[in-house]
Write a structure and sequence with these properties.
The longest helix is centred in the middle third of the chain and has 23 residues. The strands form eight sheets. This protein has a five-stranded mixed β-sheet, with no helix packed on it. With 597 residues, it is an alpha+beta fold. It has eleven helices and 26 strands. A hairpin with a 2-residue loop joins strand 10 and strand 11.
């Protein structure tokens, strides 16, 4: 049964040849040259070949603003695509700069970096290097540097190259997943948006909020080897190549950094929503408003952080981050906060929501600490919430029991009885023993108690009952197999007894059979993408083609064959599905059938 089949598109090349006709003039005479006819002019000289536009050297006047909080006195350096230094500059007292880049168009994009200087909100040097980009040559360009631009450029580079496609993809990821309060209707791109009375409060507040997330993540993890804000940004950009902050991106992504960043985001976002962002442990509202007046000295009195409305992206980001914190700790204060967040409307001002959001400062702090020092399972709770976009369903209880309670075997044969557990987290074991019925132990069957051991991630095991051959004609006999004990972290469900009937082969033909299924392991997903985390298969079967209600889970991606035992007389129908490590399952394979006589 082959349940994944895709035909790759064949790439075709079409070669087009242009044929040029040469024109040759032929005439009499013996000279090496001929005079032009009377009254005509000599032919014009041939036109020079057109210049490659990429070779043109362009003076590009680049202006912009530098800001986590606005940064004055920052050192700026501009490099072409090959890493050659083109120019340097320093941000002025309004955190702005103006520099001319003289470079060929083919040597773009131009990256530029900001370091050192003084952050007007923190009063100190910035905690990480900021980077931005000018994608192509122009006569005039606007280019801001801020935490948003830094992540955008680094994500685009991790996608393979800093080109238009990757830049747009990276920008979309940052603006939707790490928005931190940007109103995308007014700030469509944090790089090329001109800073004015309207945009300055938005850029200052959102940049400072993201910057504080980076600082808090660094501070929480400094004891685990994350020593700088730059290290945090590098880990986040590596993770975000797939558009999700869940610890599963490119090399360099960290499940712990991503989880802690999500939870510190919950802290700073809820503070920013009520316009009480803490920077350095104290409210930064007045410092941000002072910084806005510094970079826009003629701004109106309404140009303040308190008038920055709450964007839809900010609400979505905050709600998901708080959901992740609640999923990790189960704190009732976080449950109250997540409920309140669902009543916040986009376009609201901080003053309109301040009284409706309960204070969960301590609960969020506990969540950050739990993730900082927690297990991989703790981190996965946070990251899977982000990955799914919602709180994951709680894991099933770790219960163990028989899948089927009635079994048959012929004298001298064997029957495999399947035992399943609902939760495959960690190793587990279950003990079983035989209980005498009408069949006699060690005369009609092998009676030997035993233990089944489940590996981490394994959900099913089989124990084998062996019946013994004799030459006497006798009626069917029975025995029972009981599950009697299990490991400390597990418990037995109600299905702890399996009945086995031994049919006499001297008198009757067994009424049970088996079916052997085989399939081709899939290499692609149904959309044609590479399947790189196949986890196993499920065998679905039943006596009706439209109701394959019995399921056997096979947690082994290397299987391509399985025997279904203990099938009664009649026609049975079978199909196979594949599932990956994230729990996504394929469609049914083609349905096969077998008649048991």
């Amino acid at each position: 049964m082959n349940f994944v089949g895709r035909h790759a598109d064949t790439a075709r090349q079409l070669l087009i040849c242009f044929l040029f006709a040469g024109i040759t003039a032929c005439g009499g005479g013996g000279g090496s040259s001929a005079s032009p006819p009377v009254g005509s002019s000599p032919p014009p000289p041939p036109a020079p070949p057109p210049q490659d536009p990429g070779e043109e050297i362009i003076d590009n006047e680049v202006t912009g603003s530098v800001g986590d909080g606005p940064v004055v006195g920052a050192n700026l350096k501009f490099y072409n695509k090959y890493g050659s230094l083109l120019n340097s500059n320093t941000s002025d007292e309004t955190a702005g700069y103006n520099v001319t880049i003289r470079e060929k168009g083919k040597n773009y994009p131009v990256r530029f970096f900001a370091s050192r200087g003084t952050d007007l909100v923190t009063g100190a040097e910035p905690d990480f290097e900021m980077v931005s980009v000018v994608m192509r040559a122009s006569r005039k360009t606007h280019g801001n540097l801020n935490p948003h631009s830094t992540l955008m450029v680094k994500i685009a580079q991790r996608l393979g190259d800093l080109n238009d496609v990757n830049y747009v993809k990276a920008r979309g990821t940052v603006l939707s997943k790490l928005n931190f309060g940007l109103n995308t209707q007014l700030v469509a791109d944090p790089v090329d948006t001109v800073v004015d009375d309207v945009t300055a409060p938005i850029l200052v507040k959102s940049s400072e909020t993201m910057g504080e997330m980076i600082r808090r993540t660094r501070d929480a993890l400094i004891g685990t080897g994350v020593a700088s804000g730059d290290a945090v940004i590098d880990a986040l950009s590596a993770d975000l190549v797939d558009g999700v902050l869940d610890g599963r991106g490119a090399s360099g992504a960290s499940a712990r950094v991503s989880a802690v960043a999500t939870l510190t985001s919950a802290q700073v976002l809820t503070e920013a929503m009520v316009n009480d962002l803490k920077v350095g442990g104290t409210s930064a509202t007045s410092r941000m408003d002072d910084a806005i007046r510094t970079i826009q000295p003629n701004a109106s009195s309404s140009a303040t952080t308190g008038n920055v409305t709450i964007s839809a992206e900010m609400i979505a980001q905050t709600t998901l981050a708080v959901d992740a914190a609640w999923a990790l700790t189960g704190d009732p204060a976080l449950d109250s906060l997540r409920s309140a967040l669902r009543s916040v409307s986009a376009g609201s001002k901080p003053s309109q929501v301040r009284g409706s959001l309960p204070d969960a400062t301590f609960a969020l702090g506990d969540a950050v600490e739990t993730a900082t020092y927690g297990s991989s399972s703790d981190l996965e709770i946070v990251n899977s919430t982000v990955r799914l976009g919602q709180v994951a369903e709680p894991a099933p209880d770790p219960e163990i029991g028989f899948t089927v309670s009635q079994h048959q075997v012929v004298e001298g044969g064997q029957v495999a009885i399947q035992v399943e557990r609902a939760n495959a987290d960690g190793p587990a074991w279950v003990d079983y023993e035989f209980v005498q019925g009408s069949a006699t132990p060690d005369v009609d069957y092998v009676s030997a108690p035993g233990r089944l051991s489940f590996a981490d991630g394994q959900t099913s095991k089989q124990l084998v009952v062996t019946s013994l051959q004799d030459n006497e004609a006798e009626s069917a006999e029975t025995l029972q197999v009981h599950l009697v004990a299990t490991s400390a972290e597990s418990f037995l469900n109600a299905n702890t007894i399996a009945m086995v009937t031994i049919a006499d082969d001297d008198e009757a033909t067994p009424t049970v059979g088996s079916a052997t299924l085989s399939w081709m392991p899939p290499a692609e997903r149904e959309d044609g993408s590479v399947l790189d985390n196949l986890a196993g298969y499920k065998v679905h079967y039943g006596t009706s083609q439209s109701n394959l209600s019995t399921v056997i889970r096979l947690d082994n991606p290397g299987l391509s064959r399985f025997v279904v035992e203990n099938l009664d007389q009649g026609t049975w129908y079978f199909a196979v599905t594949a599932f990956d490590a994230d729990g996504r399952e394929s469609q049914f394979s083609n349905v096969g059938s077998k008649m048991i006589l």
